């Protein structure tokens, strides 16, 4: 019994840490879906491309910059890419969300191909400049990486919720998610709010990718695979609820960790598939659908 | 929305419509005739490639059916084609059962898999199905590799049992795939005119009207996925037979997305020529670009966006041109 508890505690903790990252990815997906009804399938590939750009800018493959400058430059590049992708998708958004969703797959394919063309299919490692320390609290090993992830996730998500709850832009975003037609009648510009969502989502994707890569390595497929967890988190949260995405992310992180430890690490995608199907059956409108008072 | 004009597009019912319909029919028959005679003319490697092309065309059809009749996208159809392919391959290698006996169970399993898969998202918008197919696509290689006792793992299985003993195997592989492709397009043409097909289309485009007529939404969604899964299983069965080997490398996540790309490039067409365009796009481009593999996703992505944007802008352009002509 105590054995199980001893294993369980660290598993849940590390699951929560990675879950925060899945939540970051899921929040981006949900933001885009909420306001434009498009599922952005290019999310993972573009974020992966961004992770490679940071690697390229800081390691000397493309440029030799400090880590901070590389991240800054990448974020600028990613904003440009988000702008371009929305420019491609925007004429389709108002016509058919299905067509626009398919179009994002095309963007994802191009991002994937660009990554392969520029950086090749090799595996590289990309580390975070975080302080290396670890302490033990109640038998739990807490590392500098854990605390960094937690801090970054809390600050980013807090800032996002603050913007959406209290700024004009956030009110416009909520209005458009609620009723695009009425919002347009009131003089809101749909496209600029959509663009806001796309850019924020892209940046969230970069942050998530940057923080997940140190736990594994960086290859063409790692970040795209990481985004499957983000998709699962978004589905569990109902795909149209930002707090739902957060809860879903943490839930997926913890459950995945438990599954890979206790059952099998080889069937992780299959497990996610089962989780998505189960969530669709039990909470078709998301895990927070019955809780009232959430409006983000 | 403000830039859309109020006038409705004119319905294209005129004499030219009938004429183009008849010429399209003639074109299809000509194409079928060419496909039937081609193995007599071209080299063996091309016969093989064309067999795969027909099999891929069936896969493209399975995705197009889903888009046309269900209004849904799938990026996980490799799951259903893998079901078909492994059914044929396992029955072949384990029990020596030839293709004509192993295709019916493959088809049945595909239909059942499609229905089971559509069930959880039956009441939700198509977005949920699309997202769950993403997970499906990523799970396929994992399942195949880990169930290696049954599927042969990375090495895969070799399909060798002939369909008709005594006939040259390369010709069998070609004609079997062609025959199934023709059967599927014929079946889809029949479906378009059948009551069931019309009910499916109605419940896609006018859900409330379909409800009023007694066509239930849940039934429609699940049925479309069942049909689509069955066709995809036929695609897999034919990929196994025409390609002679079945291995996880044929059912990757990217293969699933490429099926959708093929469907978009064929403009979701359900006819023989359109399916052939999609299949050829999937089969021949990787052959031409085999030396520079990284260009394939770029090219596919550009083709996907190009076709979608052309589909968006071309009608507007022609409309604008027509207006200018009419005004002058």
TrEMBL record, chain A:
Membrane topology listed for this record: Multi-pass membrane protein
GO terms for biological process, alphabetical: amino acid transport
Superkingdom in the source lineage: Bacteria
Cellular component terms (Gene Ontology): plasma membrane
Database matches in InterPro entries: ABC_transp_permease, BCAA_transport_permease
Any GO molecular function: transmembrane transporter activity
Subcellular location: Cell membrane
Family, similarity comment: Belongs to the binding-protein-dependent transport system permease family. LivHM subfamily.
Protein name: Branched-chain amino acid ABC transporter permease
Organism whose genome encodes this protein: Psychromarinibacter sediminicola
UniProtKB/TrEMBL annotation, chain B:
Domain of life: Bacteria
Lineage start: Bacteria, Pseudomonadati, Pseudomonadota, Alphaproteobacteria, Rhodobacterales
Transmembrane segments: 21-41, 47-67, 74-91, 97-119, 126-144, 174-191, 222-245, 251-270, 298-315
Chief location bin: membrane
One Gene Ontology cellular component annotation held by this UniProt entry: plasma membrane
UniProt protein name: Branched-chain amino acid ABC transporter permease
One MF term in the entry's GO annotations: branched-chain amino acid transmembrane transporter activity
InterPro entries listed in its UniProt record: ABC_transp_permease, LivM-like
